[in-house]
Design a protein that fits this description.
Radius of gyration: 15 Å
Number of strands: 0
Number of domains: 1
Structural class: mainly alpha
Order of helices and strands: HHH
Mean pLDDT: 92
């Protein structure tokens, strides 16, 4: 499997992880976190569109940057979830 395919599959995996976090019923996220995540995901879609349409020639670097943006989004959600869990335990 080529490195580009592996990176693309990693993007898909992180997207699924983000969806899992968002679909949990008991977790509420702050509006600011959600705004930041939407921005990161929109930038990721833009990057992927540039690759798909041929506007970006350095696929490896662009995919690496896309993965980083998506990981930041995932970590933001996960941190918010952990923070909320800790606040609920301390009450």
């Amino acid at each position: 499997m080529s490195p580009e395919i592996e990176k693309a599959l990693r993007v898909k995996c992180i997207a699924n992880d983000i969806l899992e976090l968002l679909m949990e019923d008991q977790t509420n996220f702050s509006e600011m976190d959600l705004r930041n995540i939407v921005e990161l995901l929109a930038r990721s879609v833009n990057d992927l569109t540039n690759i798909y349409t041929g506007l970006d020639e350095d696929h490896g670097t662009t995919l690496k940057a896309t993965i980083a943006k998506m990981r930041i989004g995932y970590n933001t959600l996960n941190y918010g979830k952990m923070k909320q869990r800790l606040e609920n335990e301390s009450v």
